[in-house]
């Protein structure tokens, strides 16, 4: 099975093919419609700066979905805002940004990521040890994180001092590429490697596909879950770091519409909500196509509602294209008799 | 085969978009109004104003856009795309002004003219337009209340939240006006908080009525205050005996205006604010600026006052409030 990359394998994934084709089509059409303005460096940078927040949240959703057993992390947006806000409130008390910008920035990043890690660990522990359903647990922690953020800020925006290196995380570029986009790409590569090449990834897919078999294979369920949700938390906090530095402010309800869009991206990227299946590269391209469309509609001055409509249409298309197997995986019915593997073990396991 | 069908479908969709785009790309001067959220009455009304401005100025491509969901993040994305699009001017009603500061700064750095509305704390704007001076607006409401009360009797003031700067300024404007002009008016309850909640306003109003059975007037601040007061007054059967004035929206307060539980409301017309924003944006594009006392040619903005803003920009205030009672509230469908 360890064959090298052959063309057949590279183009064997229908989901990936679909997403690549849609991406290319959208870019071509957009370039033509906007008379080249779409591929103008300004617009590319603007899109590259907008994508990471949502993309990182979608990666978190994907990880939690792959872990199976109804896994989902609804607390991402709340945790992102809370981590950014805590850092924005704490760091100025200890470090003066004007005197030592480097220290200010690094402390800021450390606090944000630590907050994300702690929030993720909380989710993981509750789900793994207390055996609470992920959707209920993360719904609860979502309210908890948001509530903390409201109390900490009295509901108003928390201002973040302008410190050059910190502001660069959200607004700066290296070689014309937005730094935020580089962070996102780094996260994609690291996660891609983890899922594809590391024992952790293999175990995670196994556990998502068939928890019972995974149990008998000696996969430590609790430790896997805690690690997975901690990673979701870190991803969320990275999204928070980018949004806070991008807007120079932290607010409890920033990005409140992101949760559903992130789930949409994950599902459109072919992640199986029942667990066990999903490719990082597909999620990446699902995120890019949504960003292309949204920017195109803004460039054209088309209503945002039309954008929502187009996204829904794309999701349906992707389901239709992926075939009955995925439709059944998501809705539990439908699909042809030829469909096999994937979700069936998880859903057909008898409940004892 | 699926691919061809898919391609055809996408191309058809794209063509539709293209036709719209081609129609819009005919002019080179573009002023885009970005609102907090699209699809609600208030901003639909503002869209009427923007459309009227576009009609009156055929050489300018002016249109309104905004996020489909009330979210600062979505509004920010739209503004970033507009900067990349290199529009001539952006007129924005910020969802949360601090969130947009870096984006608006970027816009101004790239030579895009920026006009804001309802954001007198925004630093990175060239002109912020406020419909009126908050103190004068509160005093205006109080004048109407005083004439209804015949300058005499007990009255109370409600505010949605003591943390809301504009609402407190409206209340203080009313209180100051009564103190200066009508010594016989007796303020028994200054600034009771209603948490921006109609239900809470109703409870507060009921308590006030119980405590002061001879109360003659109410002044509300949040748009939900008058609704709560109206309910309480109606329940007590005191329509016509108690004067109720405050900020309100015609569609929400209409029922109580009809029954007489609310005597009158005031608000500013988003349609006029939309026209004013675009007009000022056009003036900035033409290299002009707004002078103190200038006439923008829009009702309520005929003699604006100009003050310095928190940043480099200026704040332009009109006298753009609209007084409405039972007789004319139907003219304002929002």
TrEMBL record, chain B:
Keywords per UniProt: Signal
GO CC annotations on file: outer membrane-bounded periplasmic space
Pfam (any one): Peripla_BP_4
Signal sequence coordinates: 1-25
Periplasmic binding protein domain sequence ranges: 31-288
Main subcellular location of this protein, as a coarse class: periplasm
A Gene Ontology molecular function term of the record: carbohydrate binding
Record's subcellular location: Periplasm
Family affiliation: Belongs to the bacterial solute-binding protein 2 family.
The protein's name: Autoinducer 2 ABC transporter substrate-binding protein
Organism: Paraburkholderia dipogonis
């Amino acid at each position: 099975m360890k064959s090298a990359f052959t063309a057949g394998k590279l183009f064997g994934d229908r989901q990936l093919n679909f997403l690549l084709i849609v991406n290319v089509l959208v870019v071509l059409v957009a370039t033509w419609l906007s008379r080249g303005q779409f591929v103008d460096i300004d617009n590319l940078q603007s899109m590259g700066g907008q994508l990471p927040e949502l993309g990182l949240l979608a990666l978190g959703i994907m990880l939690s979905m792959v872990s199976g057993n109804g896994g989902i992390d609804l607390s991402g947006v709340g945790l992102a805002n809370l981590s950014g806000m805590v850092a924005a409130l704490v760091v100025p008390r200890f470090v003066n940004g004007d005197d030592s910008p480097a220290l200010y920035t690094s402390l800021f990043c450390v606090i944000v990521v630590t907050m994300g890690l702690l929030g993720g660990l909380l989710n993981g522990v509750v789900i793994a040890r207390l055996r609470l359903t992920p959707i209920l647990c993360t719904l609860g922690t979502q309210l908890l994180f948001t509530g903390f953020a409201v109390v900490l800020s009295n509901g108003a925006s928390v201002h973040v001092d302008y410190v050059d290196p910190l502001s660069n995380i959200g607004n700066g570029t290296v070689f014309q590429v937005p730094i935020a986009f580089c962070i996102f790409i780094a996260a994609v590569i690291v996660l891609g490697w983890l899922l594809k090449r590391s024992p952790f990834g293999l175990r995670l897919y196994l556990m998502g596909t068939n928890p019972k078999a995974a149990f008998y294979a000696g996969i430590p369920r609790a430790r896997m879950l805690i690690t997975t949700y901690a990673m979701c938390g870190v991803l969320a906090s990275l999204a928070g770091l980018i949004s806070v530095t991008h807007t120079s402010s932290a607010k409890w309800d920033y990005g409140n519409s992101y949760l559903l869009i992130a789930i949409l991206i994950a599902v459109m990227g072919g992640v199986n909500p029942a667990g066990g299946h999903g490719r990082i590269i597909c999620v990446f391209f699902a995120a890019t196509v949504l960003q292309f469309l949204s920017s195109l509609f803004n460039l054209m001055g088309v209503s945002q509602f039309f954008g929502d409509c187009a996204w829904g249409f794309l999701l349906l298309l992707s389901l239709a294209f992926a075939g009955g197997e995925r439709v059944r995986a998501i809705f539990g019915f439908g699909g042809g008799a030829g469909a096999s593997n994937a979700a069936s073990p998880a859903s057909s396991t008898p409940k004892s | 085969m699926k691919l061809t069908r898919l391609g055809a479908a996408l191309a058809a969709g794209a063509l539709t978009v293209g036709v719209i785009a081609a129609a819009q790309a005919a002019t080179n001067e573009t002023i885009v109004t970005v609102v907090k959220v699209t699809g609600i009455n208030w901003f639909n009304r503002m869209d009427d104003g923007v459309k009227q401005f576009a009609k009156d100025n055929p050489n300018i491509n002016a249109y309104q856009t905004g996020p489909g969901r009330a979210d600062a993040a979505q509004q920010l994305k739209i503004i970033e795309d507009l900067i990349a699009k290199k529009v001539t001017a952006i007129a924005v009603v910020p969802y949360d002004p601090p969130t947009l500061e870096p984006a608006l700064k970027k816009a101004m750095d790239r030579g895009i003219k920026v006009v804001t509305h309802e954001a007198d704390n925004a630093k990175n704007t060239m002109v912020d337009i406020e419909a009126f001076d908050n103190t004068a607006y509160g005093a205006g409401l109080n004048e109407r209340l005083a004439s209804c009360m015949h300058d005499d009797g007990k009255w109370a003031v409600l505010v949605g939240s003591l943390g809301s700067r504009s609402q407190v300024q409206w209340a203080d404007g009313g209180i100051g006006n009564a103190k200066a002009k009508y010594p016989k008016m007796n303020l028994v309850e200054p600034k009771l908080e209603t948490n921006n909640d109609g239900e809470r306003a109703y409870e507060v109003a009921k308590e006030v009525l119980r405590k002061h059975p001879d109360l003659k007037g109410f002044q509300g601040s949040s748009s939900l205050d008058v609704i709560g007061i109206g309910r309480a007054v109606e329940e007590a059967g005191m329509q016509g005996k108690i004067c109720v004035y405050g900020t309100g929206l015609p569609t929400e307060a209409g029922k109580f205006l009809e029954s007489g539980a609310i005597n009158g409301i005031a608000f500013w017309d988003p349609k006029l604010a939309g026209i004013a924003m675009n007009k000022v944006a056009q003036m900035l594009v033409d290299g002009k600026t707004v002078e103190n006392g200038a006439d923008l040619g829009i009702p309520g903005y005929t003699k604006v006052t100009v003050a310095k803003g928190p940043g480099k920009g200026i704040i332009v205030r009109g006298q753009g409030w609209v007084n409405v009672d039972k007789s004319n509230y139907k003219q304002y469908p929002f």
